[in-house]
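Sat 14:20. Reprocessing the chain from the morning session after the first attempt stalled halfway. Input below, unchanged.
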Amino acid sequence: MSEPSGGPIERSWDDERLGEAYRAMTARQVPVGLADAAMAAAAAKAHRSRRRGPELAWPRLRPLRTVLAGSVLVLGAIAILVAGLSFRATPAATPGGTSAIGAPTMVDGLTVQTVSAALAAEPNGGDGLVAIEGWINPMPIPAGCNPEITPGPELEKSCTARQLLVTEARQDLANNALVSPYLYARELAGANVDSLLPDMADTSAAANFVPLRAVIVGHFHDARAAECGADQRAACESAFVVDRLAWLDGKNLGPSIWIGGDSTGAELKPRLSADGVVAALQSSLDPSDEVVSMAAVSLIDITSITGKGTQASGDGAAVLWYVRIAGPAPRYPVMGWGAGNSGWMVLDDATGKLRGAGGWGFVSAIASSYSPSPRSPLPDGLYPLPTVNWLAGGACAGVGLDAVLRGSPSDPQVAWLESSMGGTLSRRDVTWPAGYHARFNPKIEILDENGNVVLRDGDAVEGACGYDPDTGWTYLQPPFK
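Finished this time. Tokens:
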């Protein structure tokens, strides 16, 4: 475990020390009716939330908890119990052979996995959603940890990092060492499950640290892993990040919506309701898609969710809705989607228009950590182009150019700019807004996400929206000057 800046940690928070902490805190007998107490605590905390939403009835589109991070975010939970939502549930055997009546086998269209199955699939998986059943234990903050320490990258380990211990079998950590298989699920700001667990106010109470059987939904290979230092990059890549708690100790849990804060810490006040967000996205989604999380966040803070390589352009104070979705890739925008089972979409709160999308195996052309997604053939003689996650729109930084468009169907990038700056012709590789594609008629034409021709072979390009020296890409969007 790394030591965060601001002072060393006296002792690493390892499995041995974790066992000692649990042994000290679980010295008393576990109270009878813990499950009922947990749900009562959840209801009480939901009632105390700063903002409360109406009941929703979405047959397939389900807003749940999302991941939010960033030092300027002050998050308010909206606990919404959705009437009529139910999980397909069948009895499931616990490791001890007893029946866990009501444990779901499917959550949000995802097959519920054991901890060992999820860990085995992680090395070859992407950032798609995973549902895991196990026993969860809230992680106590180690003694001597200074909560005022300035945190580093979101996924790096530190004494203040929020985690859930998830074990495949129920374990009595008061008297035994931690036994595999298990994982530490990271809880980034806005995705913690405390409001649904027994009250944590008294950290000396044994009831606060007994294992609870649960199903959590989350993902490995979070985009923010790219921000970790070289010594922690591998650990950040394999970290399981919680998106929401779906089922707890025999009860299905309703969805939550999170509202972020502005630069002053004041809670954002979105124009759209949760129903309005779903309605605005409906035409873009595949009919079998399910919304599994939703959050309102300012544009300037969107990278606290999507990662620093995917920054939307525009007014930093604008409110965006980040929506995580399970199911097939959306019908719009047309992008080089892979075989992933989930992704995300971003909606502009002021206009109700889609701003961007990612996931489903798609890797942006400007992501320096990974090779961009392969550009598979499109129907009707169209050619996919290297794109970013964001649709055209918003402010443009402005980089002066003196170039013209060129293209070839046999070129790996399909389209590029031919620059004559300095009196010498040179090639400049470019990336485009989400949904852009090309056709040859017989020379290249660039079409936007709606199929309108916006640029043709030989057209002058006098300005760009930015240049990334790490990837060598120049980003273009209209008006190209």
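The two ends are 49 Å apart (CA to CA).
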